[in-house]
């Protein structure tokens, strides 16, 4: 069976920036072991597999890191929806519905005030979990209590996957941080995820609102150049802990500069009578397309 293959850059302002993603498309999914091998070969944060054509209007998608299959993550779904719309016969559709392990996720396409196309992913139902004392996470991050923002909590947020939200006082603390898995082991034994989303209000550009880094475990520690699910979790976290933004926000988030993959993630949200509405958006650039041999 022939599989079409694409590489796109998500949350980028130009090609060869943002977070790269491989998208593999075919009439059926390869066997699981093969999908895992392909994701390891690509060695991006994630690789997605799409079953064509859509069934009941939804495209089935599976997501793999280099070492495991995961249920939900952001930039792969945005990039996958872009590939489907741009290259796989859905150019006339402004909304793409993706069927994932946690249910249907919609990605919509809009033009911003400058005319740039933005792909917006609707955030799934999210759960705000355990709150940790600030001093409990410092050692595993190489930081002190004074480096953390005392006005906001350290908290787990989840939707299929989970991440630990860590508020920091400064960009200096942000760029000194690292994830020590040995030090984190005691927390992991308590169910705290090995995915850490660190953020601060100090940005490179005054027009932007936050600067972030995201660490995760995949045969060692890796850092993500741009993180969509972390941004969605962050939106739910802000709506819980920042009453001043509950009526609605539209934030710009910087990420990836230390990796030489500058990224810009858009985050908008608001509190509703029966819950919250969180959307994560960004631009996508195509880099490569071809065929996967012997998939």
CATH evolutionary superfamily of the largest domain: Diaminopimelate Epimerase, Chain A, domain 1
CATH secondary-structure class of the largest domain: Alpha Beta
- Unreliable stretches, pLDDT < 50, 5 or more residues? none
**Rg computed from alpha carbons, rounded to a whole number of angstroms:** 18 Å
Largest sheet: 18 strands, mixed
Concise account of the structure shown:
By secondary structure, the protein is of the alpha+beta class. It contains six helices and 18 strands. The protein has helices at residues 32-42, 74-87, 134-141, 171-176, 181-189, 228-241; strands at residues 3-10, 19-26, 47-55, 58-64, 69-70, 95-100, 103-111, 117-122, 127-132, 154-159, 161-167, 195-200, 210-217, 221-224, 249-255, 263-272, 275-282, 284-292.
